[in-house]
């Protein structure tokens, strides 16, 4: 006959730590799981780590309103860095804003605006390399009829696409998995 052992507080704590460690190693919901070593850790495109002025808000349908990237607080003239190595795909103006796009391979593409860059499509960039400067004009210098920036100040808009679909850029640099609280083991008298 097998005798059941009662969980001691130490044994329960060790079990809890093992469960938390196993959960920490699991990917967060919706994350593509790259092969080990396939993607180096990404870094912030501006330093020091900026405040997120506006977060990612993927619309329910592609044609609906949303926010397909994040807005990071940064002053005009701030150096914008490539968050990971890649190749410049586009550097130019879209409507009235300078835009830079970097292809990181594996279906991942970053876009930055408003960023003035001297780089050309096809140029290789390294992780952390300055790829342009945040090009923010004071609203008073905008020509009449131009729309105001969508940030309540100066910011960098950073978007990331994975196989053509917009994804939250912060998932590549922050651990955004949900915290999971586990119940404590029942003690004596419970």
In which range does the helix fraction lie? Answer: under 10%
The H-and-E topology, N to C, reads as HEEEEEEEEEEE
Question: What summary fits the major beta sheet?
Answer: 8 strands, antiparallel
Q: In what range is the share of β-strand residues?
A: 25-35%
Give the averaged pLDDT, no decimals: 76
Low-confidence stretches: 1-5, 12-38
Rg estimate, integer Å: 22 Å
Kindly report how far apart the N and C termini lie: 26 Å
Shape: elongated
Give the structural class.
mainly beta
The total count of strands amounts to: 11
Q: What is the count of DSSP helices, taking H or I runs of 4+ residues?
A: 1
Architecture blueprint of SSEs:
Elements lengths: L8 H17 L26 E3 L15 E4 L5 E3 L4 E9 L2 E9 L2 E6 L1 E2 L7 E2 L4 E5 L20 E8 L2 E3 L23
Antiparallel strand pairs: 1-2, 2-10, 3-9, 4-5, 4-8, 5-6, 6-10, 7-9, 10-11
Task: Sum up the structure in keywords.
190 residues; mainly beta; 8-stranded antiparallel sheet; 1 helix; elongated
Fold and architecture overview:
With 190 residues, the chain is mainly beta. It is 9% helix and 28% strand. It is built from one helix and eleven strands. The strands form two sheets. Strands 1, 2, 4, 5, 6, 8, 10 and 11 form an eight-stranded antiparallel sheet that branches. It has a three-stranded antiparallel sheet with strand order 3-9-7, with no helix packed on it. β5 and β6 form a beta hairpin. The chain is elongated. The two termini are 26 Å apart. Mean pLDDT is 76; it is low at 1-5 and 12-38.
């Amino acid at each position: 006959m097998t005798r059941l052992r009662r969980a001691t507080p130490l044994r329960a704590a060790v079990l809890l730590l093992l469960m938390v460690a196993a959960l920490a190693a699991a990917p967060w919901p919706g994350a593509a799981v790259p092969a080990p070593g396939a993607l180096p850790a990404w870094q912030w495109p501006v330093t020091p780590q900026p405040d997120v002025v506006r977060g990612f808000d993927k619309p329910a349908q592609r044609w609906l309103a949303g926010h397909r990237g994040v807005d990071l607080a940064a002053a005009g003239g701030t150096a914008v860095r490539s968050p990971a190595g890649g190749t410049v795909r586009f550097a130019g103006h879209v409507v009235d804003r300078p835009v830079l796009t970097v292809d990181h391979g594996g279906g991942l593409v970053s876009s930055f605006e408003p960023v003035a860059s001297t780089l050309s499509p096809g140029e290789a960039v390294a992780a952390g390399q300055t790829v342009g400067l945040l090009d923010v004009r004071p609203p008073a210098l905008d020509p009449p009829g131009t729309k105001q920036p969508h940030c309540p100040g100066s910011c960098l808009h950073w978007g990331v696409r994975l196989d053509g679909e917009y994804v939250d850029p912060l998932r590549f640099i922050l651990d955004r998995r949900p915290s999971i609280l586990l119940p404590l083991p029942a003690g004596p008298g419970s």
